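User: Here's a chain of 134 residues. Predict its fold as tokens.
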Amino acid sequence: MSMKYHEDEPLSDINVVPLVDIILVVLIIFMVTAPMFIKPSINVNLPKAISGDQTQPSKLNISITADQRINLNGTFTDETAVANKAKLEFEKNPEVQAVISADQSVPHGKVVSVLDIVKSAGVKKFAISIEKTK
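Assistant: Prediction complete.
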């Protein structure tokens, strides 16, 4: 079905094929690059419990791995850096909450040590992450 145009009539049809091609190429680019933006997670075998509530997102996410390395907001660090970051976040917002995720094989003393560092920096609210079971 071809349409004939006269020289004195304006061309008013929009060709959508190039637009669809461009959108599909952009979609493919996003699909290929999306996995690069996902942060690798830290493998922490959380303790299991039946009761537990959802925690609010926090700027102090502390993980302790099975080999007792401390991870602060996605980066492995030491206790001094945890204290400095906790103090900085507490100065910005006195209601800041620290979320501590420790592998279930980590000794209780190590968790208490990290908790003490956070509380010494002024942070009064904290949460301990668990894996909720039914």
